[in-house]
Amino acid sequence: MRQLLKAFQFLLISILLSSCYFNKRLVYLQDKDFSEFQSTLMENNRLTYRIQANDVLSIKVKSSTDAQVSDIFNITSTTQASQFANPGSLYVEGYSVDGTGKITLPILGTLTVKDLTIEQTRDLIQASADKFLKNAIVIVKLISFKVTVLGEVNNPGYHYVYNNQLTILEALGLAGDLTNFASRKNVKLVRQVPRGSEVVLLDLRDPNLLKSKYFFMMPNDVVYVEPLKARSKRLNLELLTLVFSAATTAILVLNYVNNN
Question: At 83, phi and psi to the nearest 5?
Protein backbone atom coordinates (compact mmCIF):
# COMPACT_ATOMS: atom_id res chain seq x y z
CA MET A 1 0.00 0.00 0.00
CA ARG A 2 2.86 2.33 0.89
CA GLN A 3 4.54 1.69 -2.45
CA LEU A 4 1.29 2.44 -4.26
CA LEU A 5 0.97 5.74 -2.36
CA LYS A 6 4.54 6.72 -3.27
CA ALA A 7 3.90 5.90 -6.90
CA PHE A 8 0.78 8.07 -6.86
CA GLN A 9 2.69 10.96 -5.25
CA PHE A 10 5.46 10.65 -7.85
CA LEU A 11 2.89 10.68 -10.66
CA LEU A 12 1.14 13.74 -9.19
CA ILE A 13 4.41 15.68 -8.86
CA SER A 14 5.38 14.78 -12.42
CA ILE A 15 2.05 16.06 -13.73
CA LEU A 16 2.39 19.33 -11.80
CA LEU A 17 5.94 19.90 -13.03
CA SER A 18 5.02 19.14 -16.62
CA SER A 19 2.03 21.50 -16.36
CA CYS A 20 4.26 24.32 -15.11
CA TYR A 21 6.73 23.66 -17.92
CA PHE A 22 3.98 23.58 -20.55
CA ASN A 23 2.42 26.77 -19.15
CA LYS A 24 5.79 28.53 -19.39
CA ARG A 25 5.92 27.68 -23.08
CA LEU A 26 2.54 29.39 -23.63
CA VAL A 27 3.23 32.75 -21.98
CA TYR A 28 4.14 35.76 -24.14
CA LEU A 29 6.86 38.29 -23.25
CA GLN A 30 8.31 36.43 -20.29
CA ASP A 31 10.42 38.55 -17.95
CA LYS A 32 10.15 38.70 -14.17
CA ASP A 33 11.62 42.21 -14.26
CA PHE A 34 9.34 43.39 -17.04
CA SER A 35 8.59 47.10 -16.77
CA GLU A 36 6.13 49.36 -18.52
CA PHE A 37 9.03 51.69 -19.31
CA GLN A 38 10.23 49.22 -21.92
CA SER A 39 7.20 50.08 -24.02
CA THR A 40 8.58 53.58 -24.64
CA LEU A 41 11.12 52.00 -27.00
CA MET A 42 8.48 50.60 -29.34
CA GLU A 43 7.77 53.80 -31.26
CA ASN A 44 11.47 54.38 -31.95
CA ASN A 45 11.75 50.98 -33.66
CA ARG A 46 8.74 51.28 -35.94
CA LEU A 47 9.70 51.31 -39.61
CA THR A 48 8.20 53.92 -41.91
CA TYR A 49 6.46 52.32 -44.86
CA ARG A 50 7.18 53.69 -48.32
CA ILE A 51 4.78 53.20 -51.19
CA GLN A 52 5.61 50.43 -53.64
CA ALA A 53 4.32 49.30 -57.02
CA ASN A 54 0.89 47.61 -56.90
CA ASP A 55 -0.12 49.41 -53.71
CA VAL A 56 -3.64 50.79 -53.70
CA LEU A 57 -4.32 54.24 -52.28
CA SER A 58 -7.53 55.95 -51.28
CA ILE A 59 -7.22 59.60 -52.27
CA LYS A 60 -9.89 62.20 -51.63
CA VAL A 61 -9.68 65.88 -52.52
CA LYS A 62 -12.13 68.09 -50.66
CA SER A 63 -12.82 71.79 -50.47
CA SER A 64 -14.19 73.59 -47.44
CA THR A 65 -15.81 76.20 -49.70
CA ASP A 66 -17.16 74.30 -52.73
CA ALA A 67 -17.80 70.57 -52.37
CA GLN A 68 -19.32 70.22 -55.85
CA VAL A 69 -16.22 71.58 -57.57
CA SER A 70 -13.90 69.37 -55.50
CA ASP A 71 -15.84 66.26 -56.58
CA ILE A 72 -14.42 66.50 -60.10
CA PHE A 73 -11.00 65.65 -58.61
CA ASN A 74 -12.32 62.31 -57.30
CA ILE A 75 -13.40 59.05 -58.91
CA THR A 76 -16.32 58.94 -56.47
CA SER A 77 -17.93 62.01 -54.97
CA THR A 78 -17.04 62.60 -51.35
CA THR A 79 -20.73 62.44 -50.42
CA GLN A 80 -21.00 58.87 -51.77
CA ALA A 81 -17.66 57.55 -50.54
CA SER A 82 -19.08 56.36 -47.20
CA GLN A 83 -21.03 53.55 -48.86
CA PHE A 84 -17.83 51.79 -49.97
CA ALA A 85 -16.63 49.85 -46.98
CA ASN A 86 -15.52 46.35 -47.97
CA PRO A 87 -12.00 45.68 -49.34
CA GLY A 88 -13.30 44.86 -52.83
CA SER A 89 -15.12 48.16 -53.18
CA LEU A 90 -12.20 50.08 -51.72
CA TYR A 91 -9.90 48.44 -54.26
CA VAL A 92 -12.18 49.42 -57.18
CA GLU A 93 -12.46 52.99 -55.94
CA GLY A 94 -8.75 53.29 -55.08
CA TYR A 95 -5.75 54.33 -57.14
CA SER A 96 -3.30 51.55 -58.05
CA VAL A 97 0.40 52.37 -58.18
CA ASP A 98 1.71 51.09 -61.51
CA GLY A 99 4.99 49.30 -62.15
CA THR A 100 6.84 52.58 -62.59
CA GLY A 101 5.57 53.92 -59.25
CA LYS A 102 3.03 56.38 -60.68
CA ILE A 103 -0.65 57.09 -60.12
CA THR A 104 -3.00 59.04 -62.39
CA LEU A 105 -5.53 61.36 -60.77
CA PRO A 106 -8.45 63.23 -62.37
CA ILE A 107 -7.43 66.77 -63.37
CA LEU A 108 -4.14 66.55 -61.45
CA GLY A 109 -2.60 64.07 -63.91
CA THR A 110 0.21 61.59 -63.31
CA LEU A 111 2.31 61.76 -60.15
CA THR A 112 5.26 59.62 -59.03
CA VAL A 113 4.69 58.30 -55.52
CA LYS A 114 6.99 55.27 -55.32
CA ASP A 115 9.27 55.30 -52.25
CA LEU A 116 7.30 58.17 -50.70
CA THR A 117 5.65 57.90 -47.31
CA ILE A 118 1.90 58.40 -46.99
CA GLU A 119 2.51 61.87 -45.58
CA GLN A 120 4.87 62.81 -48.43
CA THR A 121 2.34 61.55 -50.96
CA ARG A 122 -0.37 63.65 -49.37
CA ASP A 123 1.87 66.75 -49.48
CA LEU A 124 2.66 66.10 -53.16
CA ILE A 125 -1.01 65.84 -54.10
CA GLN A 126 -1.84 68.80 -51.89
CA ALA A 127 0.64 70.99 -53.78
CA SER A 128 -0.94 69.98 -57.11
CA ALA A 129 -4.52 70.45 -55.85
CA ASP A 130 -3.73 73.95 -54.53
CA LYS A 131 -3.08 75.04 -58.11
CA PHE A 132 -6.67 74.35 -59.11
CA LEU A 133 -8.74 74.53 -55.93
CA LYS A 134 -8.96 76.99 -53.06
CA ASN A 135 -8.94 75.66 -49.53
CA ALA A 136 -8.15 72.14 -50.74
CA ILE A 137 -7.95 69.30 -48.23
CA VAL A 138 -6.24 66.08 -49.36
CA ILE A 139 -6.72 62.78 -47.54
CA VAL A 140 -4.52 59.79 -48.45
CA LYS A 141 -4.85 56.27 -46.99
CA LEU A 142 -3.17 52.98 -47.85
CA ILE A 143 -6.03 50.52 -48.41
CA SER A 144 -4.00 47.54 -49.66
CA PHE A 145 -2.48 46.87 -46.23
CA LYS A 146 -3.06 43.20 -45.50
CA VAL A 147 -1.26 40.57 -43.46
CA THR A 148 -1.44 36.79 -43.68
CA VAL A 149 -1.29 34.59 -40.59
CA LEU A 150 -0.86 30.83 -41.03
CA GLY A 151 -0.05 27.78 -38.95
CA GLU A 152 -1.16 27.06 -35.39
CA VAL A 153 -3.73 29.84 -35.01
CA ASN A 154 -7.48 29.60 -34.55
CA ASN A 155 -8.42 31.62 -37.63
CA PRO A 156 -5.69 31.38 -40.30
CA GLY A 157 -5.92 33.46 -43.45
CA TYR A 158 -5.31 36.99 -44.67
CA HIS A 159 -6.68 40.06 -42.98
CA TYR A 160 -7.07 43.60 -44.31
CA VAL A 161 -5.83 46.22 -41.92
CA TYR A 162 -6.89 49.85 -41.63
CA ASN A 163 -4.24 50.74 -39.09
CA ASN A 164 -0.67 51.50 -40.14
CA GLN A 165 0.65 50.77 -36.64
CA LEU A 166 -0.42 47.12 -36.43
CA THR A 167 1.80 45.00 -34.18
CA ILE A 168 2.51 41.29 -34.52
CA LEU A 169 0.48 40.65 -31.36
CA GLU A 170 -2.50 42.44 -32.90
CA ALA A 171 -2.05 40.42 -36.11
CA LEU A 172 -2.20 37.22 -34.06
CA GLY A 173 -5.30 38.61 -32.39
CA LEU A 174 -6.93 39.04 -35.80
CA ALA A 175 -6.18 35.36 -36.40
CA GLY A 176 -7.93 34.34 -33.19
CA ASP A 177 -4.69 33.95 -31.19
CA LEU A 178 -2.40 30.93 -31.07
CA THR A 179 -3.60 27.44 -30.25
CA ASN A 180 -2.26 25.53 -27.25
CA PHE A 181 -0.06 23.55 -29.61
CA ALA A 182 1.58 26.61 -31.16
CA SER A 183 5.26 27.27 -30.63
CA ARG A 184 5.74 30.70 -29.05
CA LYS A 185 9.46 30.32 -29.66
CA ASN A 186 9.40 29.70 -33.40
CA VAL A 187 7.25 32.23 -35.24
CA LYS A 188 8.40 32.98 -38.76
CA LEU A 189 7.88 36.39 -40.32
CA VAL A 190 8.21 36.68 -44.10
CA ARG A 191 8.61 40.27 -45.31
CA GLN A 192 9.07 41.65 -48.79
CA VAL A 193 12.13 43.90 -49.06
CA PRO A 194 13.79 45.53 -52.09
CA ARG A 195 16.30 42.68 -52.42
CA GLY A 196 13.63 39.95 -52.20
CA SER A 197 11.97 38.06 -49.35
CA GLU A 198 13.32 38.32 -45.82
CA VAL A 199 12.55 35.54 -43.32
CA VAL A 200 13.14 36.11 -39.61
CA LEU A 201 12.44 33.89 -36.61
CA LEU A 202 10.70 35.59 -33.69
CA ASP A 203 10.35 34.45 -30.09
CA LEU A 204 7.08 35.70 -28.59
CA ARG A 205 8.35 34.86 -25.11
CA ASP A 206 11.20 37.36 -25.34
CA PRO A 207 10.26 40.87 -24.10
CA ASN A 208 12.98 42.28 -26.35
CA LEU A 209 10.49 41.70 -29.15
CA LEU A 210 9.01 45.07 -28.17
CA LYS A 211 12.27 46.72 -29.22
CA SER A 212 12.54 44.85 -32.51
CA LYS A 213 11.84 46.46 -35.88
CA TYR A 214 9.73 43.39 -36.60
CA PHE A 215 7.29 44.12 -33.77
CA PHE A 216 5.29 46.39 -36.08
CA MET A 217 3.82 44.74 -39.16
CA MET A 218 4.32 45.97 -42.71
CA PRO A 219 1.94 45.55 -45.67
CA ASN A 220 1.94 42.02 -47.14
CA ASP A 221 3.78 40.48 -44.17
CA VAL A 222 3.23 36.76 -43.70
CA VAL A 223 3.35 35.20 -40.22
CA TYR A 224 3.72 31.44 -39.86
CA VAL A 225 3.35 29.87 -36.42
CA GLU A 226 5.10 26.52 -36.09
CA PRO A 227 3.47 23.69 -34.10
CA LEU A 228 5.04 22.27 -30.97
CA LYS A 229 6.57 18.81 -31.16
CA ALA A 230 3.84 17.74 -28.77
CA ARG A 231 1.36 18.39 -31.57
CA SER A 232 3.01 15.82 -33.82
CA LYS A 233 3.26 13.34 -30.97
CA ARG A 234 -0.42 13.76 -30.20
CA LEU A 235 -1.37 13.25 -33.85
CA ASN A 236 0.78 10.11 -33.96
CA LEU A 237 -0.84 8.87 -30.75
CA GLU A 238 -4.32 9.51 -32.14
CA LEU A 239 -3.38 7.63 -35.31
CA LEU A 240 -1.99 4.69 -33.34
CA THR A 241 -5.12 4.66 -31.18
CA LEU A 242 -7.29 4.58 -34.30
CA VAL A 243 -5.25 1.75 -35.83
CA PHE A 244 -5.30 -0.21 -32.57
CA SER A 245 -9.05 0.27 -32.24
CA ALA A 246 -9.62 -0.89 -35.82
CA ALA A 247 -7.37 -3.92 -35.31
CA THR A 248 -9.13 -4.83 -32.08
CA THR A 249 -12.53 -4.58 -33.77
CA ALA A 250 -11.33 -6.75 -36.66
CA ILE A 251 -10.03 -9.41 -34.25
CA LEU A 252 -13.31 -9.46 -32.33
CA VAL A 253 -15.30 -9.80 -35.54
CA LEU A 254 -13.09 -12.64 -36.81
CA ASN A 255 -13.27 -14.37 -33.46
CA TYR A 256 -17.06 -14.12 -33.48
CA VAL A 257 -17.25 -15.51 -37.04
CA ASN A 258 -14.96 -18.43 -36.22
CA ASN A 259 -16.93 -19.35 -33.10
CA ASN A 260 -20.22 -19.37 -35.02
Answer: -80, -15
